[in-house]
Structure formats: C-alpha cells, structure tokens
Amino acid sequence: MATKRKWPSLVLSTALIAGLLAACGSNSDKGSSSPNASGSASASPSEEVLKPLTLTYYSEDINPNWVNMMDDIGKALTAKTGITLSAEFATGDAAQKTALIASSGQYPDLISAKGGISKFVEAGAVLDLTDLIEQHAPNIKKIFEGQMNRLKYSIDDPKIYVIPSYDSVGQQNFEANGGMQLQHRVVQELGYPKIRTVKDFENAIKAYLAKHPKDENGNPNIGLSLIADDWRMYIGVTDPAWASTGGAGDGEYFVDIDTHEVTYHFRRPVEKEYFRWLNHMNAEGLLDKESFVQKYDQYKAKIATGRVLGLIDQKWDFDEGQRPLKAEGKFDQTYGHYPVTLTEEYKNPAFWSTGFTGGLGVAISVDNPDPVRTIKFLDYLASDEGQVLANWGIEGKHYNVENGKRFIPPEVADRKINDAINFQKESGIGSYNLLSAHYGDGVKDPTGNYYTTRFPEQLVSDYSSVEKEVLAAYGATIWKDLFPQEDEFKPKPWGALWNIPVPSDNDLSVLEEKLKNITWKRIPEAILAKPEQFDGLWDKYMKEIEAAGVEKAEQLRQQLLNERLALWGS
Question: Measuring CA to CA, which residue among 415, 425, 430, 487 is closest to residue 65?
C-alpha cells in the first residue's frame, strides 16, 4: 500500500497564472529511453526505491491540465521511481495561500512557492539541500556545474533551499513570444511595410481599418486590443512600457545596465511617452474600448473571431485565442511578432538574456518522509533520460528516431498545436518541467539532439504556409530573425531583479502593493482620458506614488540588488 502523508486541507481560491509554458527538453543516446544511454549519472532504482510512495506537492502556479500523473509521462515516472505526486495548485491570491500554508506548522512534502519561498525559509519549513545534492543528485550537480553560487538563498544565509526549475540552464531563446503582434493579413494587404516603431504599428492598423472597417459578416474590425484582467495588467499594459523603451525585464523596476541604479520604471520620463501613445491610439479610435473591462475569456473569444488586428501581449497568453482560427484554416488572421519600440533609438529586449537566474523552483519540506528518495526522484527528472521523457514524451508514441535524430511525427505535431489541451492531458508533455532542474532551448545532449523541442527546425515545421510567406517577405526564417540578438545586449550580472526573495520583515512587499494599486488605477485612467487631460493626470499619478513611498521602495530593491551582486560574485 502506498505511503501517503497529509497536510492541512486548504480551500484554494481562483487562478493566479495559467501555467507558464515551460521549455521542452531532452536527451538520450540515439533517442533510446534506456536510463544510461548517454552516460547519464542516473542509475536504475533498486527494489527498495520502487516501493510505492505518494508525496504531497504544493505549487503557486496552477496546472489546469494536471491529471494526477495518469498521463503517459506520469505513468512512466511512477513506473521508474515508484513515486506519485498528490498535487495542490494555488488559485486566487496565491501569495495569501502560501502565507497561510507557511504559518500552518504542517507542510506539503514538496513546495514550489516562487517568491513566497522566503516565508517557508523563515518558518524553518524547508530543508537545506546542499548535502542532499552533493550526496544523492549527480544529475542536478551536473546541470548546475559552475552555477552553484546562484542556488544560494542570500548573502546572510548561503544555504540551498530550492532546486531552480523556472529557469533553464544554457537557455538560448529561439521563439519570439513578445514584441507587438499584427495579423498576417494586415502586412500582406499593405505590401509588407516596415514595422519597427509604435508609429509604424499604428499606421499599419489604421491603413488596414480604412480599407476593411468590417469583417465578412459585417462586424467591426478592432485595431488594437489590450488585456488588463488581474495580473495580466503587467503583461498587456505595463510591461510593454519598459520593453519598448530600453528596459530589461526586472519586474516593476528599471535597472541601469552600467550603474546598476534601480528606478520604479514608471518614473522614467520616456515611459510617459509610451502611455501617451496609447492615449493617442484611444483618441484615434484604434484602441478596443473594452480593453480595461474585458475578462480573459472574453479577450480570447474576441481574438478567435479574427476581428482583432493588433495585440500587445505574449504568445503564451493569447495563443489559445488564435487556435480556433488555425483549426478553421484562417491562418492569415493569426499573428506575427514584430520588434516594436517607441522610437528606433531603442532595442526590443525580447532576447536580452538574464543568464541563469536561479531562485524559483522546488523545495523539500521538513515534513517530507523520505528526503533522500525525494531528491533522487528530482535527480531522475534532471537526468538525460528524465528530460527526454518530460519534454519529448514516449519514443514511438510522441517522437521517433531516425539516423540518430529525434523528430516529432506530423500527426503528433498537429495535435500539439491544434489540440493542445487534450494532448497535454493525455501525454503529460509540459506538465513536469517545473519539478526539477533542466537544460534550456539550444542545448544539445551527448547524442547531438536538442534537450528541448523548441529549436529553429522544429519551429519552422510548425509554421503555416501563410506564416512562412510573411517571414520570407521580411527576409526571415523565424520571428527571432527580426529582433535584436542576445549579443547586442550587455550581460545582466544580477539575473532578474524580480526573482530575488524578499524577506517578510522587509517593508517592500507592503510598499509595492500600495504602488501597484495606484498604478493599476491611474495608468488606465490616463490612457482613456482626453489627450489634453493626459499631462495633468500623469503629474497626479507621479505625486501619488511619491507620497506612497516609491523612493523607499527603490532603496529597498537597490539593497536586494546589491546583495545579489555580492552573493553571485563571491
């Protein structure tokens, strides 16, 4: 009978973030699923290790496609290790839920609390993994070779509490998920105009709407729709302000790459001009009037009608909306990605690498019944074989091997794209990447195959003929070709500011909540105002955040940054 541990049953509220699309990864000699095919340090589990064991698992991120490890990969993992996960995924206010669990005194066996890990550390709820990794996790050690300093919790507490899983080692991004998006029919109709600045983006939308104000059913086409529902306000409204003006993805702050000075990014005068442009788009009738009131499901449904010409979003957020268009063969109404910035003096930072950031991932609690067995389970996932399984699936079912190269058969690729939800529920591909350490896109295993399935050749094979035609017209093979490349940016020695844990006794969390509430009220107000009112409203917003303590927040974030630089440089 399986061993099963209980932790307090908690009612979990509604969604924080709909499962991040984790990178797909792999390794195996000649595509074999044999455990040591490519020299992996993993060993076949002993009879003792295979005894059934159920571990409780809590994650701040929801996984709507989780089927209790009854998918193909889950069954294979259990058969290999004897371990099953009984998972709880936070919904609603995940930070509040994490705080409740951390203060309960009884903890799930495995914890993925993202930024909330500090609450568990301070409660003494999680184990120092340093010795467990050293003694029982050769594959994890191999992945993090030369990066172990980045696993340490802080300069004052240099223990390892988390196995980072939200960031991939050696990641080379190939897929352009961000930028600004235009339907392919827009650029086709206009003869493939240059799309480089917000003015170019605006002109393309305006010109197409002038020719085609309504769709074939007489419904009005929509120029630009934004998503601002709950946390998506970051993705669809506020993050693009730094992304289009030289920022580098440090959450709500701008860090000067040369001086390392921290600024609440909305206080940069240039960002005011980005929001002024959105105000102008609204005044011109090019901005969807429902942008700040529509719910996420309404937004996706609107995209699925094919009437929305432009988006400012991430592909993982809007992709579900364009899938019905692909299923109907309306590929010209799906979206291309363009490296749009406020003016040409700025570079779109979509491919500005953070390097390996460490930080967020999986912890083992002090209540775990078998930490050694658990670290071995996580180590198996980090092995070459484990990464192949988690990211490519089952050989002969989800991928094949010819001449030593793994490839995804067309019928499987079609399901991954056009029946993604059901495919993930059945296969488990995409459900296990955040459970342990893994290599990123662009890294090859000892057999010469990529660890992940997101590499240029595979990306191209997923493109429609319309998408290929548009890319060719712009002299590109993949969307990344249109963007500034990694080597055009200076390395960020701090990784990413947003993933540095904030101690609970720090005033920062309270300050940032105040700033967020003001910002999320005033930014939409300024965008939707009459143009002549914009400057006055912006000045009011600046005074409000000053009164709310924005300068102190900057100082506290600066301190965290300085400590991160010292820790990683040690």
Answer: 425
Q: What is the pLDDT of residue 570?
A: 54
CA distances to 22, 33, 317, 388 from 377, rounded to whole Å, are 19, 17, 31, 15
Tokens of 236: 């669809």
Kindly list the distances between the CA atom of residue 233 and the CA atoms of 296, 457, 523, in Å, as whole numbers in the listed order.
11, 34, 10
Question: Per-residue pLDDT tens for 251-307?
Answer: 999 999 999 999 999 999 999 999 999 999 999 999 999 999 999 999 999 999 999
| Beta carbons within 10 angstroms of residue 438's beta carbon | 32
What is the end-to-end Cα distance of the chain in Å, rounded?
A: 48
Task: Give the per-residue pLDDT at 488.
Answer: 96
The residue behind tokens 């979509």 is 350
Strands (E), 226-334: 253-255, 262-264, 308-311
For residue 534, what is the DSSP state?
A: H
Give the separation between CA 540 and CA 522, rounded to whole angstroms.
9
Mean per-residue pLDDT of the chain: 90
CB distance 62 to 19 below 8 Å = yes
**pLDDT at 26 > cutoff 70:** no
CA dihedral of residues 545, 551, 554, 560 (deg, nearest 10): -130
Contacts of 131 (CB under 8 A, 6+ apart): none
The span from the CA of 19 to the CA of 150, in Å, is 25
Domains and CATH numbers, the chain: 3-173+356-457 (3.40.190.10), 180-350+464-499 (3.40.190.10)
Residue, of 41 and 171, whose pLDDT is higher = 171
Q: Is 506 helix (H, G, I), strand (E, B) or coil?
A: coil
SS3 19: coil
The string of pLDDT tens digits covering residues 527-550 is: 999 999 999 999 999 999 999 999
d(CA 335, CA 337): 7
CA distance 118 to 102: 9
Mean pLDDT of 171-187: 94
Q: What is the rounded distance in angstroms from the CA atom of residue 475 to the CA atom of residue 479?
A: 10
